[in-house]
Amino acid sequence: MYLIGGSASTALAERISRELENAPFGLPFQKRFPDGEMYVRIGDSLAGADAVIVQSTRTDADLVELLLLKDAAREAGARRVFTVVPYFAYARQDRRFYPGEPVSARAVANVVELGSDAVVTVELHSPLTLGAFSKPIYEVSGIPALARLLAQRQVDLIVSPDKGGVARVERMAKLLDKPWIQLAKHRIDSDHVELSLGAADREKVRGARVAIVDDVISTGGTIVESAKLLARCGAASVAAACVHGLFLRDAFERIKAVTDGIYSTDTLVNPAEKASVAPDIAQILRQHAAGP
Predict the structure, then answer these.
(1) Which residue of 157, 210, 216, 266 has the smallest Cβ count within 10 Å?
(2) Is the pTM above the cut of 0.70?
(3) Is 185 assigned a catalytic role?
């Protein structure tokens, strides 16, 4: 297996390489033409090898780079190409809400699987996206990586900021052998939410060291309001943890001001990445990329 790190996931690709008993790892040459078009080149021969391309698609440019890298791997002689997309962008639009809208998750899935023998991703926003793939697709959970990190911290209670995250915090609570609760959320707009907590759960929070766990932190509005509510309820400390740390605009600074710690995995390069999904991705590759 030969690991190729795209510019959005270089460090993670190298970590996966180490997890795979130091499988060969390479960085492609990249440049921009004067008109802005991207150029990539894989320097090593991949003749007969299985190529694993690791590239999150946070931006449209990341997606184009991924397409070019897959084609370059084929041109370099790769026998099979496994595409690892740690952060799969456009996954929020997993259905049509209004006439004339695209199902963005499906459209991007169709592009990502082009030239791939299989796709690996981490903590998709919705399981509906899995059905958009025609090639084999394997989803890695980011929760075990966060659990390995939080197990080294002092945490008494796991908190889901909304109903949609219940399955996630249930898994985290089971891995850490800790109780969990869910906040009631009403979204006002993309930056503002209203949160509440029942009397029984308020008692659980009082004096507890709590960790808010979410799949994505983008603008940070939900996490900030969750942390403030938990502090008002008497929490001894409040940490925020997520799989994908986007931290748009000043989100990181705003969350830092109201929490005692911010933790993210390395699916995206961000100031809070302290847990790695490399062992979990490597395990999937061992299980499903092996064979004739």
Answers:
(1) 216
(2) yes
(3) yes
Rounded Cα distance between 208 and 117, Å, is 47
Instruction: Tell me which of 178, 185, 204, 274 is the catalytic residue.
Output: 185
Give the chain as a DSSP string.
-EEEE-TTSHHHHHHHHHHTTS--EE--EEEE-TTS-EEEE--S--TTPEEEEE---SSHHHHHHHHHHHHHHHHTT-SEEEEEESS-TTTT--S--STT---HHHHHHHHHTTT-SEEEEES-S-GGGGGG-SS-EEEE-SHHHHHHHHTTS---EEEESSGGGHHHHHHHHHHHT--EEE-EEEE-SSS-EEEE--HHHHHHHTT-EEEEEEEEESS-HHHHHHHHHHHHTT-SEEEEEEEEE---TTHHHHHHTT-SEEEEESSS--TTEEE--HHHHHHHHHHHS---
CATH label, 2-141+277-288, candidates 1.10.630.10, 3.40.50.1820, 3.40.50.2020, 3.40.50.720: 3.40.50.2020
Fold of 144-275: Rossmann fold (3.40.50)
Distance from C-alpha of 24 to C-alpha of 21, rounded to nearest angstrom = 9
64: number of Cβ within 10 Å: 15
